[in-house]
Each structure stands twice: as C-alpha cells, then as structure tokens.
Specification:
281 residues; nine-stranded antiparallel beta sheet; four-stranded antiparallel beta sheet; 3 helices; globular
Length: 281
C-alpha cells in the first residue's frame, strides 16, 4: 500500500483548531512514514504488537532533547522497533538495560531519514529503556512502534488507525487543548476488555495538563485516570461519562512522577487498541 494512501487512512476528518490541526498534520506524516516503512520490510505477516507493554509510543521532542519509555522484554523473542519522524531529521534510537538512560546503550541506531528499524534480542529477561533523541535543530514529532516476531501472529493496522480517528474526536471535543509549541507524549496498545494501559513520565514543565483517551471502533466505554506514582493516589479521575473517548485534567508538578492509565471498560471485541495522549492545556 502506498504511503499517501496510508496517510489518508489515519484520520477521517480534519479539525479547524490550530493545535489540533498541527498535531494531526504532523501525526499524518510521522505515522505515514512509519507505516510505510513497516510494510516495506516485507515481513508484516510474521509481526505482532509486543504483548508485554505498549506498542505505540511517541511525542513532540524539542531540539537536542529526548523521550523514553520502559519495556519488560524476554529472551528467546526477536523484537523489532520502528521509529519515524515528521521531518527528515537526525534522531538517535537507544536501548538500555534496566531503568533509565544513564548507562551504556546495548543497541544504538542513529538515522538520518524519515524512518528506521532495529531488530534485536535481549541478553536477559528484564526491564529495558528505549530512548528517542532528537539531534536536529528543529522540533520533531517522533513515533515508535514496538513489534515482535511470532509464528502465526495476529497483526493489523486497522484497530490502531481506528483508535487514532477516535483520538481526533477527543481533540475536537476538548477544543484542541494546548499550545502549538508545547511538548506532549502519547502511548497505545491492545487492551483486553476491562484491562488497562499504563505509561509514565515526569512532566517537562508545570502547568495544567490533560490526559486524552480514545479507543478503536469496538470500544463502548473508555476511562482515563492520572495517578501519583509515589503516593499511589489518583490525582485526576475520568470525566464520568460513558463514551469511546474520555479525558482527565490535572495540574502537573515537576517533583511528581505520574502514571497515566487508560481502561477499556467495555468493548464489543475481547480486546481493543487504545491510545492515551498527554498534552498541556
């Protein structure tokens, strides 16, 4: 499938809000580059989304800065990490053993074009950190897709694309919260009915933020929560409505590490692809 057709599939509508329009346009390009690159490998029939953690991760990264996320990886599994940007910018993809990015990476791949791929097997089962560093002089929207190889896998872009369409819906409903200059992060995965997706990060700045949550077309009800990791307390509950999209508003403190939780409360299918998007209001 051609990349331009994939890009047209990603979002069904266009919002007039400036922030939403900017985010959607950048996501179209970044994810279009990523999806196109996945297909070009020719091995799509042997892929599936990582089963232990979030498959989709990304965000807007300012020049010379980075975003990172942690995975629980297993030996005897071949992992494939695809990364792409909305620019043909220079980005470093690094994988570290353990939590954090202070040590020496076990895998590193600097790429100078729109997309890159890293295939690897971990030396031991455990926690690994994947870091995406924007080495360019421009702000870039970086997206990453974590897959694994499996015999007779189930893999489809359909639920992910459907969830992205729902994400646009919640952006429109929330009036495209945020400024065009703000950094943001997002994550997504396949979540069983009544299961949840979690992701964490320390906010790069203080202020009023929103967790925007959306699911694919099979989702009936989704819920968004923001949790103080150290205290184990919920700092912002969901909107209280029954919908395919949801939001949670909170005031960020630089000293607090937050966990963002998106629950697939009800879906027609046994599992659905859900996305959580954290943006400054």
């Amino acid at each position: 499938m051609k990349k331009n057709l994939l890009i047209l599939m990603i979002f069904a509508a266009v919002s007039a809000n400036v922030f939403s329009q900017t985010v959607i346009d950048n996501l179209k390009v970044s994810l279009g580059n990523l999806f196109d690159f996945v297909i070009q490998t020719g091995d799509i029939k042997s892929y599936e989304y990582v089963v232990t953690d979030n498959a989709l991760y990304g965000g807007r990264v300012s020049p010379r800065n980075s975003i990172s996320t942690q995975y629980s990886l297993q030996t005897n599994v071949q992992y494939i990490i695809f990364a792409a940007t909305d620019l043909k910018s220079e980005v470093d993809l690094r994988i570290y053993r353990g939590e954090g990015t202070s040590g020496q990476p076990i895998v590193q791949n600097r790429f100078h074009h729109a997309a890159a791929i890293v295939r690897f097997a971990v030396p031991a089962t455990g926690t690994y950190t994947i870091e995406l560093i924007n080495l360019s002089n421009q702000t870039a929207l970086v997206t990453m897709l974590a897959l694994q190889v499996r015999i007779n896998p189930y893999f489809s872009f359909g639920p992910l694309v459907s969830a992205l369409n729902s994400t646009e819906t919640v952006f429109r409903e929330r009036n495209g919260s945020g400024s065009t200059t703000n950094n943001f992060v997002f994550s997504g995965k396949v979540v069983p009915r009544n299961g949840r997706m979690n992701f964490e990060n320390i906010m790069p700045e203080e202020g009023r933020f929103e967790l925007l949550a959306a699911g694919d077309g099979s989702v009936n009800t989704i819920e968004a929560f923001v949790i103080d990791v150290e205290k184990g307390e919920t700092v912002s509950r969901n909107s209280g409505r029954s919908s395919r999209v949801d939001f949670a508003v909170f005031s960020a403190n630089l000293s607090i590490k937050y966990r963002y939780s998106v629950i697939n409360r009800s879906s027609r299918n046994n599992a659905a692809f859900v996305i959580g998007f954290v943006v400054k209001n």
